[in-house]
Amino acid sequence: MMREKLFLILSAFYVVLVILSNMTGGKLVASPFTDGLVPCSLFLYPFTYFLTDFIAETYGGSKARFLIYLGFGMALLMHTLASALIAIPAHPVAASFQLSLKTLFSFNGLSLTASLLAFIVSQLLDVKLFLKLKGQLWFRFNVATLLSQVVDSFMINFILFWGLMGWSFLEVFDIFISAIVLKTAFSILLTPLFYAAILISKRFALPDRP
Questions:
Q1: In a domain, 210, yes or no
Q2: Is residue 171 part of a domain?
Q3: What pLDDT, in 10s, does the model give residues 194-208?
Q4: In the chain, how many domains are there?
Q5: Could you read off the pLDDT of 156-166 as tens digits, one per residue?
Q6: Which residues are registered as beta bridge partners of 37?
Q7: Is residue 180 part of a domain?
Q8: Rg for the chain (alpha carbons), in Å?
Q9: What is the CATH number of the domain that holds 66?
Q10: DSSP assignment of 96-118, as one string?
């Protein structure tokens, strides 16, 4: 019973992280480690890889992949429902609120498709690498997380922003490098927490992965 409740809690937390990361990805902020800019969603998004790797290690690959598909589906559902609600004509007294909602939820189809595609490709790659790699837990966690996040950043920056939306190469490259540096720092900083989470899971007799 304990393990099922924990899985439900982690699933809810994961979905919240995915949706918030998707909503805030367009806001650029100064990177704490470089002179470049990064999406503010990068302060949340690395925790999604943490959760999928934890689930893969303690519950197995099928549960981790289910979590990814759940996050993808809920993010798509959120955008679909938000778009439908925004399309309803607003009363004049709520005009400013309607504008705020459009600003927050209105993603063009190209950006939304690329964002969700990068998400599901990189997340599934992370789980696959984490389970296939041999070696210490810290090695599997960091290598899988970093390589999959490089794929995610490449798809967003070079395929979407540079290839499809026409941003300058230097601008995209600067954001890409700053994002990778930040993601690397997060991965290293989260490693002790990942070890602690695995140890606690064993303490409470959560299942080992198949």
A1: no
A2: yes
A3: 999 998 887 765 555
A4: 1
A5: 878 777 766 67
A6: 30
A7: yes
A8: 18
A9: 1.10.1760
A10: HHHHHHHHHH---HHHHHHHHHH
